């Protein structure tokens, strides 16, 4: 079983590994289709989906534009609720703060609910280096922790594995053969994790939303593990990206409508927990001590950037991954970072502040705009991918051959005579290589494309050539337009209309 992303160094080589992994491709296709269909049904059933998308977008735009104000309000209210607030500029700082709390508590084990920020800051590794056991309690996260892999989807971390592969992993852990039956497998994990919850010194959670007006944090989940993590251990640590803020509980109503529907097609997740500080005297459960670590790690670099600020609007629903034709073929590990799919392709270089290091990831998109259509807060990811490509070229890190080719194309396309001459040359030149209406040659720049598909050939007669021929015919009959010629002109116009403009956004 291959593990894309573990060995290969570039997006292209990781994508090739994924494309040759039939298990992965089938598993990713199966689940993304299920999620996409679920989202489609849930948004249609909602009735006013587009209006609510716009409401969600406006809430996020407003919050991020006033992030300093709302963060301050959240921090003051959370402190008044008895929460210890920490700020981390970098991923290393965030992990160090969590480790410091764990060591101060002399913790030997930490149970975790799903947190992409903890993946981002490599917390498990840091804790384990210090001899503290970190146990993932979300089923998908638990599976990939056993496999020694990173999540390959924001919402469904083990999306690339089928139940036979999962049964194999869990059987090793169980020390006996477990049937590849979801009830059996989930039953084993439930029993195993129950002991871990009871033993753990610290519970660590992520944060879906932080409510500024009361200093509360909100978690959406389906398995009940986040509720266990945030109530059983005596100390709770929450890792949250600094952009998780929303102003009020009224805004949460909009987000609670958009997030589960977009993520899994559910009207609401099985559990939604609102946590406002540690346990009070009258509370039946909850931690005695609560810490929230607010993580920047490159997020503030996007503030004030007109091209990338909207990245901070993301609510991590994963809908753009499920809609993306590239992600659905290669899965998440091929992207090489914590976040995958269209959001990962933009977020990873943005968070790292290093476009050069990730300069091939922006090319992992067809720019079809399906991510934008799927996004519940209307983030124009396809535009951002173009900005990333442009910045790469402007910084002098573009592919030299590609840059020369684009300059040549611009010089030809800007002049109608040169363009017509190039088309005639192409029509003549392609005669030797066209087979069944397409070009299958696997040489030069066509090699990558034609390995998996057939490049379309130029039309035998271009639109301009057909048009000028018709104009000639008309000029020979200046008084009455021949109805057949007229019909032919209309047909050409119709064909051009149907063939063009479908993919532009
Ligand atoms: S970019 Fe939009 S669709 Fe993608 S994860 Fe973020 S909110 Fe969801």
UniProtKB/TrEMBL annotation:
It comes from the Bacteria. Keywords: 4Fe-4S, Electron transport, Iron, Iron-sulfur, Metal-binding, Repeat, Transport. InterPro entries: 4Fe4S_Fe-S-bd (IPR017896), 4Fe4S_Fe_S_CS (IPR017900), FTHF_cligase-like_sf (IPR024185), Helical_ferredxn (IPR009051), LUD_dom (IPR003741), LutB/LldF (IPR004452), LutB_C (IPR024569), NagB/RpiA_transferase-like (IPR037171). One of its GO terms (biological process) is lactate metabolic process. Residues 304-335 form the 4Fe-4S ferredoxin-type domain. GO terms for molecular function: 4 iron, 4 sulfur cluster binding; metal ion binding. It holds the Pfam family LUD_dom. PANTHER family: LACTATE UTILIZATION PROTEIN B (PTHR47153:SF2). This is Iron-sulfur cluster-binding protein.
């Amino acid at each position: 079983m291959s593990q894309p992303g573990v060995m290969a160094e570039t997006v292209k080589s990781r994508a090739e590994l994924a494309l040759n992994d039939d298990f992965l491709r089938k598993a990713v296709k199966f689940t993304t289709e299920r999620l996409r269909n679920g989202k489609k049904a849930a948004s249609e059933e909602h009735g006013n989906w587009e209006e609510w998308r716009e409401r969600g977008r406006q809430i996020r735009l407003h919050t991020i534009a006033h992030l300093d104000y709302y963060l301050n309000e959240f921090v003051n209210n959370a402190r008044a609720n008895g929460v210890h607030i920490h700020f981390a500029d970098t991923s290393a700082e965030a992990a160090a703060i969590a480790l410091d709390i764990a060591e101060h508590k002399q913790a030997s084990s930490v149970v975790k609910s799903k947190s992409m920020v903890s993946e981002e800051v490599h917390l498990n590794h840091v804790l384990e280096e210090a001899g503290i056991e970190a146990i993932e309690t979300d089923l998908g996260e638990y599976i990939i922790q056993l496999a020694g892999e990173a999540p390959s989807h924001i919402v469904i971390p083990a999306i690339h594995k089928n139940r036979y592969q999962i049964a194999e992993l869990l059987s090793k852990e169980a020390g006996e053969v477990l049937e590849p039956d979801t009830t059996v497998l989930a039953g084993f994990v439930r029993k195993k994790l129950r002991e871990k919850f009871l033993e753990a010194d610290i519970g660590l959670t992520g944060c879906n939303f932080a409510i500024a007006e009361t200093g509360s944090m909100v978690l959406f989940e389906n398995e009940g593990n986040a509720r266990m993590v945030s109530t059983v251990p005596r100390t709770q640590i929450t890792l949250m990206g600094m952009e998780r803020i929303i102003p009020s509980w009224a805004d949460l109503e909009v987000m609670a409508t958009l997030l589960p529907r977009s993520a899994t097609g559910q009207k609401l997740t099985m559990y939604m927990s609102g946590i406002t500080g540690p346990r009070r005297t009258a509370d039946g459960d909850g931690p005695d001590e609560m810490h929230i670590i607010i993580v920047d790690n490159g997020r503030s670099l996007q503030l004030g950037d007109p091209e990338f600020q909207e990245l901070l609007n993301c609510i991590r629903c994963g809908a753009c991954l499920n809609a993306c034709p590239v992600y659905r073929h290669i899965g998440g590990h091929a992207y090489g970072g914590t976040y995958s799919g269209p959001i990962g392709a933009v977020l990873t270089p943005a968070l790292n502040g290093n476009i050069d290091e990730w300069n091939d990831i922006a090319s992992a998109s067809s720019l079809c705009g399906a991510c934008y259509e799927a996004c519940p807060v209307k983030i124009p990811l396809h535009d951002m991918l173009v900005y990333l490509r442009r910045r790469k070229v402007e910084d002098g890190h573009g592919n030299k051959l590609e840059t020369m080719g684009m300059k040549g194309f611009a010089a030809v396309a800007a002049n109608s005579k040169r363009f017509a001459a190039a088309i005639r040359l192409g029509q003549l030149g392609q005669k030797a290589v066209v087979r069944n209406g397409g070009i299958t040659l696997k040489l030069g720049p066509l090699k990558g494309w034609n390995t998996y598909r057939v490049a379309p050939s130029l039309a035998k007669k271009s639109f301009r050539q057909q048009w000028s021929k018709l104009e000639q015919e008309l000029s020979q009959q200046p008084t009455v337009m021949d109805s057949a010629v007229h019909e032919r002109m209309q047909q050409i116009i119709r064909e051009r209309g149907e063939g063009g403009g479908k993919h532009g956004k």
